[in-house]
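Protein record

Derive tokens from sequence
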Amino acid sequence: MTPDDLFGYLIPSVVVGPLLAAALCLVVSRRPRVQNVITIVTLTGILVVSGVLLRLTDVHGMHTVQVGGWDAPVGITLVADRLSAMMLLVASIVLLSVIIYAVGQGVRDGSGDQPTSIFLPTYLALAAGLAAAFIAGDLFNLFVGFEILLAASYVLLTLGASQERVRAGVSYTVVSMVSSMVFLLGIGLTYAAAGTLNLSQLAVRLSEVPDGLRNTIFAVFLVAFGIKAAVFPLSNWLPDSYPTAPAPVTAVFAGLLTKVGVYAIIRFHTLVFPDGAMDDVLLIAGLLTMVVGILGAIAQTDIKRILSFTLVSHIGYMVFGIALSTEDGLSAAIYYVGHHIIVQTTLFLVVGLIERQAGSSSLRRLGSLAVASPVLGVTFLIPALNLGGIPPFSGFVGKLAVVQAGADVGGTLVWMLVGGSMLTSLLTLYVVVRVWSKAFWRPRADAPEGGLALAKPLALLPSDEYVEFDEREEVGRMPMSMLAPTVGLVVVSLLMTVFAGPLLGITDRAAADLVVRHEYVDTIPADAEPGRVVDSVSGVR
């Protein structure tokens, strides 16, 4: 089988596979163990496929597949390059780890007499939406991927139907619908200006659009993607929405959903709007995102809200790298995206373990966790220090790469970003050390609301013990299948440190592809208009 044939099967499978598995899970909805097997096997397969795609794209370059019976630019174009394959691989690692964690927690809905569940089918739909967004080769199908994410995430966010979750879910949905409406506006303006929605053609045609109109279109898309990526000042919705969800849902949202917005910004900034006209706006937004986010984290007393604000803050590093419009900046941003997905997901999973061990995530109630569970203490400490950018962890590598890329560019505004990056890193370290000292180190009796009895010592439960989302009767008892995937993600973050050199090599090549653009532009070898020929390097001649 040739690489072309292999690409033709593998690229669509990352979307079709989860959708078929979701349908099968609905068919066997009264057999939760079968659902578990279907979901885990499917996501394991997607992980393998994503790894193969990354290897193939790194060796053979970008590849496209036309589906739906129509050729490009009318038909559906699916694109796999180094960037999309890397995003698929990191996302599949997180999706598989979180679902193993969720099964261990006994995630389900319905009563004890009827343990049917919509969680797993919805989770698989979320996985399909993520994959569709990463490999979409046109604006419309990127929008479809986003909408699949919105529908699935609303269901996941409101599982349990508590008043707090429904309120947060409604707020999240309203904000997401506003983002979708802005996205649709951008699609309409783009089609009116360029006559196509295919990204390859847009890379050529929008270069001929007047600067004012082109910048307006880009600004509209930046607003749409900025909401999804939680870029300041479009990030106020996130800290109020994510902490109300169950630990597995919060973890996958924090790790992946905002990064879809970041991915879209990278793709549009490099492919469709490469002239750098909005770079200063992005730099200012990146600086404010970093500083305002971390200041918000300092003011919180609940670990979930602290992590939600740090999530917002560290989006600023990615925006900083993108706005530099250099290969080094893009490479650093891509590496930091992968690092942050893994570390942020791990920390939210650890919070679920803390709630399981101590019955709360509030710093006013926690203490002595390092004594109650040394394993839990280490599992929190490593990703926390990683998030703070302590050498030699991947967080330090990513931040150093971003700062070095900025120093190479120079300029007053960029140096302000460099200073803001360092300040944010120090404040992040302060925040995580504060959590460690209060939740893990101090005696629980010294906590302001620590009068509750200390949780029982760590006990490991069999993975098949089911527990409702909001049930707290199992305080002090952590299933091994919750602990194991969390530790697995910690190991992945350490591997990103050990293999930082090869990984940065891949991100360098991905960034080079993004800056040069000709490989993506050549996916449509000739424009739709008669007599018009696309030059693979400079655009149109």
